[in-house]
């Protein structure tokens, strides 16, 4: 991965950390809701994500929130956010930072 692409990926991850699950006071990246993040050579971004539950109150809004946050980054191309529930999210996907925030460590 070239340096500019690496920097862009870090900016996207930072943007993802600005989006919070409405029921858990932790950002979606550290919750492990981002299953896949791909950035092509034109800096188009594809995100595959899930929610903590299919019945999440913001299920319809969350992909748009993620897309809007990523689109704020200078130099980003098109942004595609896809929602999946396979495999289902579980607590094992939490980062250490999220576990600390939730008092699990």
Any overview of this molecule?
The chain is α+β, with helices and mostly antiparallel strands and 105 residues long. It has one domain (3-86): GMP Synthetase, Chain A, domain 3 (2-Layer Sandwich). The protein has helices at 3-16, 62-71, 96-101, and strands spanning 34-39, 45-49, 79-83. The chain has a three-stranded mixed sheet, covered by helices on one side. The longest helix has 14 residues, at 3-16. The termini are far apart. The mean pLDDT is 92.
**How many runs of DSSP E, i.e. beta strands?**
3
Structural class: alpha+beta
In percent, how helical is the residue content?
Answer: 25-40%
Please list the strands of the largest sheet in the order they lie side by side.
1-2-3
Radius of gyration: 14 Å
Q: Count of helical segments?
A: 3
What is the CATH top level name? Alpha Beta
The geometry reads as globular
Determine the mean pLDDT.
Answer: 92
């Amino acid at each position: 991965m070239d340096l500019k692409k690496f920097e862009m990926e870090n900016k996207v991850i930072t943007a993802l950390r600005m989006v919070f699950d409405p029921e858990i006071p932790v950002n979606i990246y550290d919750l492990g809701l981002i299953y896949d993040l791909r950035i092509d050579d034109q800096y188009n971004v594809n995100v595959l994500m899930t929610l903590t539950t299919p019945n999440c109150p913001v299920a319809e809004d969350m992909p748009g929130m993620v897309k809007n946050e990523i689109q704020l980054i200078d130099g980003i191309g098109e942004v595609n956010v896809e929602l999946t529930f396979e495999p289902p999210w579980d607590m094992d996907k939490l980062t250490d930072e999220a576990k600390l925030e939730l008092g699990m460590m």
